[in-house]
What does this fold into?
Amino acid sequence: MTDLGAFDLVVVGGGVNGAGIARDAQGRGLSTLLVEKDDLAQGTSSRSSKLVHGGLRYLEYYEFRLVREALIEREVLLAAAPHIVRPMRFVLPHSPEQRPFWLIRMGLLLYDHLGGRKVLPPTRSLDLRRKPEGAPLRKEFVRAFGYSDCWVDDARLVILNALDASARGARVLTRTALVAARREGDVWSVTLDGAKTARARAIVNAGGPWVEDVLRAAGANSSKNVRLVKGSHIVTRKFWKGEQAYLLQNADKRVVFVNPYEGDLALIGTTDIPFAGRPEDVAIDEDEIDYLLRVVNRYFFDGPSRRDVLQTFSGVRPLFDDSSDNASAVTRDYVFDLDAPSGAAPLLSIFGGKITTFRRLAEHALDKLKPFFPNMTGAWTDRAPLPGGELAAPDFDAFVTALRKRYPWLPEALLLGYARRYGARIHELISDANSLDGLGRSFGAGLTEREARFLVEREWARRADDILERRTKCCLHMSAQEREAFETWFAGVSPRS
It folds into this structure.
């Protein structure tokens, strides 16, 4: 057995909530161990619609507190990580069969003001017969609204939180599952994969879809339950001009996002289907693909067909079970369950949540633990950049302009890819290289040997798909032969332990 030592906090689950809590806790002076059974963000947190948004449709379910919190967080995250979070303009075509025009106008007016918007531009009415945003849409759609939200690289958001936690002194272990935990008075004795042990004054269960598995491993129960809902997406070639995204209403009162994705691609989703299987086995089915294509082609006159689908992915949302009959109406808010018998070490479990509100969720989680850590310092993450977000220039475009001058030998596509993924950390990546040759072997789609080794050494990449699918998304643009060649090369790389 390897004894990792004693910690104030063991956080179980390396999704966005777990990584965010580990970062916040370590920054408040709590010694923290973050453990994840797979790769960081491998589950739900890399299978989202890639949006930092208020959740416009949640207003219909009177989720005003959640929407307000999410709207405020848009601009907090935009300031903290301008390289992976960026403004995006959405076009919402009016479909009279779904919701009256006045109701959407009132909802967007509330959406504009509920969160104290400061940076993002306000809602505007659009005449689709005259505006370029209407060009790809069927002619029966003549009116629309343009409103603002933000795009995010969801997997990298998780990585950046883990990086900041680690830089502040936290221990981060991936591919390391919680085997068991037992209370020994006011301390938890924790057993992990790989014959590792640790002690902790408290455990945070951020297991997401596996939250009940973590409870069982700790010999605990909860009066609260998680409700698993499958959300699936499809990826196609982009089939409209411009950088705008579209939000499409459907007859079942759901909405479907159609977003620009990774340059020349489109990301379309999501579905909302009750899920009862193992979260590891989640996958899209043909009915979901047909559903998404049907919604898109109701609005676009030259939308994609089944043969245009290049990739699909599905995730399991671990929602708090509020007993709603409709999966789409289940709350996206989060709920805590604190198990803390008198004199015993506490266990805090998290049910629900959404990627936009992870930072506030972390703050609220630590508020729950404050009685057990009276010397813990106060909240701080609302004003702290994430790694790479400390741009020397005042905005991302100015930052890229400065990079072009500093690295004139970098091809534009490669420079932009690095700038988006690493922000100010690009200088750590490029280091002493002064030519393309200095970056080593090129694997295709902008992935170089230098970047791959950087991700192994600095970002816990242990397998080829950790790099291709989560840390870079290069797999979307690689041929089967290029991917196979990279996997063969990577098999000879020895990741750090």
